[in-house]
């Protein structure tokens, strides 16, 4: 198919050329496990609607698509900047045919994409490759050279030397690949990044200073998940695909991002240990006792990507749990004179599509590391397992607590079976009075005045000993050396 795109403010006008028949608009974007219903942005289309995202069309048809999302997984069109993540804008017919896009832009605009240039068009051999190649354009676009193969495409500024070091360290692990583009933009939102085979798109807020682990994470994905692929992760652009391996695809990638950034000298050791401490502290919550890493990966569509105020009671992030497991694996491998890098090298050179059994076979067979129970059992066990090698101190354990997290004066989280839970407090309750005091003091039998749904209530809450959520970590080896880090989490 060919798409001729005419951007205008807030919309893309598109003339699509294909065959008469059914076209399918993706409902989500690979790598981001939530049904976004991107097809909701179609405001006009020459065709007969068959379902929410399928249309019967003639060989040529026009459509108009609304585009003002700042999200790097979607698309935006303004009078001086466009960004397109293709699944958010373009439908497909056959996956295995060529897809090309032609952009109708003023001559002073610059275009950046990892699609192949073909005359006046940018093309991919099939829809998977096309959907995996964002397009960015603006008269203000700068293409900053990192080295011969890597560039940053941005309308802002970025520390290219930091990226040069990250790329150089990451490339040492699984080798060099084709050309690569980091699409980078500052925004009024903190949106993070998304990985592609030969690029990544990263959008962060203006006040975010530390970017190393985010860039290292997205860059390491060009191998882990893009070229080293979970066997059960089979693309389907219309409905959920289930994998139980996101703890490896995402959590291990997050761990590698920390290690690569440390080796590259672009991440402070103290910040690195704090990063680990923040992940480990999540394993102290009820959700980690109830859920396994495999389960949390499976439920990403309804839990991780649709996190509500009860997430810490109901699930565990496979990023946090996966990072903790990766640390365990790295520590165990280091006892045998190897590093986690060797696991990646072995699995990558043995087979590009892997299952849990493949990982377990290598870890068990070569290194006597058995992770089956840590992946399929309660995720909280990983923390127990780490205690032999990592110094973990619970700095709030035993202190009187209610079991709530506050955002300003509003309850953001209630821990299951905590005194706050037993006293009847729920998330969203706004605390307006603390036993006649101006500040909340955690002590037994406090009478709280709260507002719930506009009604004022008084609730007496007792305390119990804090089970321990805030943790101080000292790993004492690997790249972390002797630095200590304390998790940020505040639960009272
Ligand atoms: Zn990721």
How would you summarize this macromolecular structure in one to three sentences?
This is Trypsin-like serine protease. With 492 residues, the protein is of the alpha+beta class.
Keywords:
Peptidase_M4/M1_CTD_sf; Peptidase_M61; 4 domains; Trypsin-like serine protease; Neutral Protease, domain 2; PDZ_sf; binds zinc ion; Immunoglobulin-like; Zincin-like; 492 residues; seven-stranded mixed beta sheet; alpha+beta; 28% strand; 14 helices; 27% helix
How does this model look, in words?
By secondary structure, the protein is of the alpha+beta class. The protein has 4 domains: about 1-140, Immunoglobulin-like (Sandwich); about 145-210, Zincin-like, CATH 3.30.2010; about 245-390, Neutral Protease, domain 2, CATH 1.10.390.10; about 400-465, PDZ domain (Pdz3 Domain, Roll). It is about 25% helix and about 30% strand. The protein has 14 helices and 31 strands. A 7-stranded mixed sheet has the order 4-7-2-1-10-13-12. It has a 5-stranded mixed sheet with strand order 15-16-17-19-18, covered by helices on one side. Strand 15 (about 140-145) and strand 16 (about 150-155) form a beta hairpin. Helix 3 crosses helix 4 (about 245-265), helix 4 packs antiparallel against helix 5 and helix 9 packs parallel to helix 13 (about 380-385). The longest helix has 18 residues, at about 245-265. The protein binds zinc ion. Zinc ion binds near residues 217, 221 and 250. It comes from Acidianus hospitalis (strain W1). One of its GO terms (molecular function) is peptidase activity. One of its GO terms (biological process) is proteolysis.
